[in-house]
Every structure is written in structure tokens, then in C-alpha cells.
């Protein structure tokens, strides 16, 4: 299992990836249509949500190398990503009632893409922390290993 400093570093890398993706997708200079304006606004909102989390992470007492580590581990990291997903879904429900225009369609498209990238981030955290068999052992292999170790 990785130590807590490495775990914290992985979360910060994932948040940085999300911020970079949302910044790249929002770079539409002077959007001409309402659809593009809505898309840019949605990506800007997603980027602000990630910036909030990056700021929160940087203010944690264990954010600095050598500090006392009081991390919640992988569960806490998943909660951070899930909090971002929840915030985007709440925003999507609110924006659904605002109006029925191309702006709204673009806004919802941006939030959908942001949720997709959050799913990728969640999988990245899962793959990085829990290789097969370490945290979720397969029972048949565990029984077989116990029998071999017992000398049967």
C-alpha cells in the first residue's frame, strides 16, 4: 500500500488533470453561437469546482511533505471526486429549469463531458491504489494459497 504522502500526491495530480482538461475544453475565443457560449459557461463552472477542491487540498495540514499525515486515504479521495460529481449534478438540475435555449443545451453538454472526466478520474484513483488481489482477494486463490502454505 502506498504511503499517505504518495496518496495525497495522486489526488492532486488527478485534480490538476481535471483542471487542465476543463481549461482546454473551455478555450473558445468569442463564441458566436448561444450553444458555444453555454458550453463555455458549463466548462468554466466545472473548472471553478475543481479549483475549489485544489484550494481545499492545498490548505490541508498534511499537504506539505514532512507534515503529520492525517489522511482518510483512498475513501477520502473518492469522496472528493464524488463531491465534484454531486455538485455538477445539482448545477445541471438547476440549469435545466432556467430556460429552454441553445445556451442550456451547450451548458448541459459541458457538464456531461465534465462528469465523464470525473469518472475517468475515479477509475484512475482506483487503479492506482488497488491492484487485483491486494485489497479484494479472490476466495478460491486465497483458499488454495492457504492449503499450499499448510503443506497439504
| Fraction in helix | over 70%
The helix count comes to 5
Stretches where pLDDT is under 50 for at least 5 consecutive residues are 1-5, 64-70, 129-144
Number of strands: 0
What overall form do the CA principal axes indicate? elongated
What is the count of structural domains?
Answer: 1
Provide the fold topology:
Blueprint: H1 4-25, H2 34-58, H3 73-98, H4 102-129, H5 139-150
Helix pairs in contact: 1-2, 1-4, 2-3, 2-4, 3-4
Describe the overall structure.
There is one protein chain. With 152 residues, this protein is mainly alpha-helical. The protein has one domain. Helices cover 74% and strands 0% of the residues. The chain contains 5 helices and no strands. Helix 1 packs antiparallel against helix 2 (34-58). The longest helix has 28 residues, at 102-129. Mean pLDDT is 71; it is low at 1-5, 64-70 and 129-144.
Features:
single chain; 152 residues
In short, what is this structure?
The protein is mainly alpha-helical and 152 residues long. The chain has one domain (4-150). Helix content is 74%, strand content 0%.
Amino acid at each position: 500500500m502506498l504511503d499517505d504522502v504518495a496518496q495525497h500526491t495522486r489526488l492532486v495530480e488527478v485534480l490538476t488533470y481535471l483542471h487542465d482538461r476543463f481549461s482546454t475544453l473551455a478555450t473558445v475565443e468569442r463564441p458566436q453561437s448561444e450553444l458555444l457560449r453555454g458550453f463555455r459557461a458549463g466548462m468554466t463552472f466545472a473548472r471553478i469546482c475543481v479549483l475549489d477542491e485544489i484550494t481545499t487540498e492545498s490548505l490541508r495540514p498534511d499537504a506539505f511533505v514532512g507534515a503529520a499525515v492525517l489522511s482518510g486515504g483512498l475513501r477520502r479521495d473518492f469522496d472528493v471526486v464524488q463531491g465534484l460529481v454531486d455538485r455538477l449534478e445539482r448545477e445541471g438540475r438547476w440549469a435545466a429549469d432556467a430556460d429552454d435555449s441553445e445556451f442550456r443545451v451547450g451548458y448541459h453538454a459541458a457538464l456531461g463531458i465534465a462528469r465523464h472526466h470525473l469518472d475517468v478520474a475515479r477509475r484512475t484513483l482506483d487503479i492506482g491504489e488497488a491492484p487485483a488481489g491486494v485489497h479484494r482477494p479472490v476466495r478460491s486463490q486465497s483458499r488454495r494459497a492457504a492449503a499450499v502454505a499448510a503443506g497439504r
